[in-house]
Amino acid sequence: MNELISNILIGIGLSFSFFGCLGLLRFPDVYNRLQSATKCVTLGTCAIMLSLVIRYGFNDIGVKGLIAIPVLFFTSTAGAHALLKGSHIFGIKLWDKSVVDHYREDTEGGEGNKSENNENA
Amino acid sequence: MMEYIDFALWFLIAMAALCLIRVILGPTVADRVVAIDILGIIVVGICVILSISTERSFLIDVGIAWIILSFIGTLTMAKYLERRKLNE
Question: Which residues sit opposite A113 in a β-bridge?
Answer without folding.
Answer: A100
